[in-house]
Amino acid sequence: MEPIAQEIINELNRRADPAKAATLARFFKTGPGEYGEGDLFVGVPVPIAREIAKRHREAPLPTIRELLASPVHETRLTALLILVLRFEKAESGEERDECARFYIDHVDALNNWDLVDLTCYKILGPWLADRSLLYEWARSGRLWRQRVAIVTCMHPVRRGDFSDAFAIADILLDHPHDLIHKAVGWILREAGKRDEEALTAYLLPRYRRMPRTMLRYAIERFPEQKRQQFLKSQL
Hints:
Layout: H1 3-14, H2 18-27, H3 46-55, H4 61-68, H5 73-88, H6 93-105, H7 113-117, H8 120-127, H9 132-138, H10 143-151, H11 154-158, H12 163-171, H13 178-194, H14 196-203, H15 212-218, H16 224-231
Helix pairs in contact: 3-5, 4-5, 5-6, 6-8, 9-10, 10-13, 13-14, 13-15
């Protein structure tokens, strides 16, 4: 193992908490048949993983690759947080391209929702000029790639561009998994925070067929009377 990778793992192990590891394993559904089945936790919270990532923000891509191959969740998380820092602080377009392509090549290391949500829109959001890859992933039938597809839309949504968010939400509208319902609802809510009328126009022809969780997340910031009208199908 590369020395830097070993140093990062040693730091994570020094901050590990077995009791918290057990809690995280339950929270992230690692039991048989659950979405995080088999994932291993050592009990390092995200703020500490961020601290360690910042100290090793210059770690090269081969080190990040080695960390992403770890079965330990917090090790993969730290690797991805380092990659985000490298991308954000890149001094050239070539370096940004290298980080983003590395992320795409290793997307299957993102096998739980926090790994997706903390990183994808920060790298792919500003980098993808052609978002056709997101549509491909949305249609892939692969849970975590589908979550990457919708959560990456956070970047354009925060800039007032809802077109991809609404189009990918349409692709995922009938998805069976609540992790997608929550993610789609979250991104729709973010759109509504910026333009309530646009979100309302999107929801009106669709809200009756939406999964309930998706709808609840999407309309969470609406005025209470309007929210109840949606929930009671009175619009």
